[in-house]
Amino acid sequence: MPSREEVAYFGAGPAPLPTPVIEAGGKAFVNYNNTGLGLAEISHRSPTANAVLAEAKSALTTLYDIPEGYEILFMQAGGSGEFSAVVHNLVSVWVERRRRKAEKALGNDEDKLLERLRKEVTEELKVDYLVTGSWSLKASQEAARLIGTKYVNVALDARKANNGKFGRIPEEATWSLTPTKREGGTGSAFVYLCDNETGVEFPAFPKCLEPQGADNEEDERIVVADMSSNFLSRKVDVSKYSVIFGGAQKNVGVTGITIVIIKKSLLPPQTATPPPALLHKLEIGGLPGTIVLDYATIAKNNSLYNTLPIFNLWIASQVMVNLVNTFGERKVSGQEEIANKKAELLYTTLESHPQVYQVVPDKSVRSRMNICFRVLGGDAEKEKEFLAGAETLNLTGLKGHRSVGGIRASNYNAVPLDNVEKLVRYLEDYATK
Ligand SMILES: Cc1ncc(COP(=O)(O)O)c(C=O)c1O
Questions:
Q1: Which of 7, 29, 110, 119 fits a 20 to 30 Å CA distance from 432?
Q2: What's the CA gap between 233 and 217, in Å, rounded?
Q3: DSSP 3-state of 409
Q4: Which keywords label this protein (predicted)?
Q5: Residue nearest to atom 14 of ligand 1 (CA)
Q6: What domains sit in the chain, N to C, each tagged with a CATH number?
């Protein structure tokens, strides 16, 4: 049986975690801090659980420099759960803002209010999706399943500019976002993007989504980002986003925890939850949403509305505390330097053997987290041979996505530089043998 040190695992998620955290996790699972009980056995409402929650929030706030006006939620149901949650919650916010405005103009006349809101839903409700890979595609499909395709504006389908395949992000000028009031429209309920798709990563925050000092709601772009696969791997200006979410199981912890960072202005008391009866009458599919995915409910209960897996949260908190302790003042930028260095090593090696290796995505949007490439133009036998050779050296988890094929080396935070160097040596050997 190989030891952890002997195996270099590059799986796409769940992904490796720091060995000291896993070892401490083993102890905490059996007997946490000599209490005679394991962390998975204690109440999520106990002082111990509350301390874990507070520590996780504090470490994350430090790492990302999360500003005052944001709340951190710990949820379940993974990244995919958030595909739905975003729609449930942010379309509700849209309705509530419209309801407030209508009430100001029309007073409490319920029939008139309802008539106006129905008209606005029909004519103006839109959610914008930037589809740059299979995850944002899935998220947009979930929105369409919940509220109906007529409300979903796919502002960008990156495949259209790349021969039907993902792998590039076309110029912003080609995106067709719903215009804000300033641009002559009425804005969308939110703009959704996936910061890191398999192989494709936004190089920076899109210029066209930069806040424009909006002092009214119609000009505010509510930007939502799925950071499941590049969470805590680079510096992020949180203030540009309204919602950031990520499943923990790649860079932060084990499956079972989803982290959500949300602007408090989208939560009560600043934005009330629209009355369920109103939502029923408006007949917008999927609204009101499931209570365990309701941001307002989760925020009000400090993420403890229902049983939160405290052991899983503790793992995430330990990973984050380790990052705080390791990088000090550099915070997440410290991790970013390492992630960039590892990715650079791999891409440089691949590029130095263009006859053997072909990197799949365009250079401008290459992911630092998932390095996707083909061997000898995607020759199935050669790729099998490449993977088998890697396995014999304990370089594992390199097989590409089942629907895409090829090779995918995932370079998450806990993949040590040493392991990347081992892979680089194998890439060199294979190419020159
Ligand atoms: C970017 C991204 N979003 C969402 C998901 C789905 O996450 P989950 O399996 O936790 O629902 C993944 C999973 O790999 C992902 O990489």
A1: 7
A2: 31
A3: strand
A4: Amino-acid biosynthesis, Aminotransferase, Pyridoxal phosphate, Serine biosynthesis, Transferase
A5: 13
A6: 58-311 (3.40.640.10), 331-432 (3.90.1150.10)
Give the pLDDT of the chain (433 residues) as one tens digit per residue: 889 989 999 999 899 999 999 999 999 999 999 999 999 999 999 999 999 999 999 999 999 999 999 999 999 999 999 999 999 999 999 999 999 999 999 998 999 999 999 999 999 999 999 999 999 999 999 999 999 999 999 999 999 999 999 999 999 999 999 999 989 999 999 999 999 999 999 999 999 999 877 667 778 899 999 999 999 999 999 999 999 999 999 999 999 999 999 999 999 999 999 999 999 999 999 899 999 999 999 999 999 999 999 999 999 999 999 999 999 999 999 999 999 999 999 999 999 999 999 999 999 999 999 999 999 999 999 999 999 999 999 999 999 987 778 999 999 999 999 999 999 999 999 999 8
Expressed in angstroms and rounded, the spacing between residue 140 Cα and the centre of ligand 1 is 14
Residues 6+ positions from 221 with CB-CB distance below 8 Å: 177, 180, 187, 188, 191, 209, 211, 214
- Ligand 1 centroid–CA 183 distance in Å is 33
CA of 409 to the centre of ligand 1 (A): 16
Q: What is the largest CA-CA distance in the chain?
A: 80
Residue with tokens 């995850």: 135
Q: How many residues does the chain have?
A: 433
Q: Report the alpha-carbon distance of residue 58 to residue 214 in Å, rounded.
A: 29
Q: Which atom of ligand 1 is nearest to the CA of 255?
A: 10
In angstroms, what is the span from residue 249 Cα to ligand 1's centroid?
A: 9
What's the first-to-final CA gap in the chain, in angstroms?
Answer: 29
Q: Is the CB of 419 under 6 A from ligand 1?
A: no
Whole-number Cα distances in Å, 433 to 353, 356, 386, 427: 12, 11, 12, 10
64 and 54 in contact (C-beta within 8 Å)? no
Q: Which atom of ligand 1 is nearest to the CA of 12?
A: 14
DSSP class of residue 158 equals G
Q: What phi and psi, each to the nearest 5 degrees, are found at residue 72? A: -110, 130
Q: What is the DSSP string of 215-271?
A: -SGGG---EEEE-TTTTTSS---GGG-SEEEEETTTTTS-TT-EEEEEEGGGSTTTS
What is the rounded distance in angstroms from the CA atom of residue 18 to the CA atom of residue 30? 19
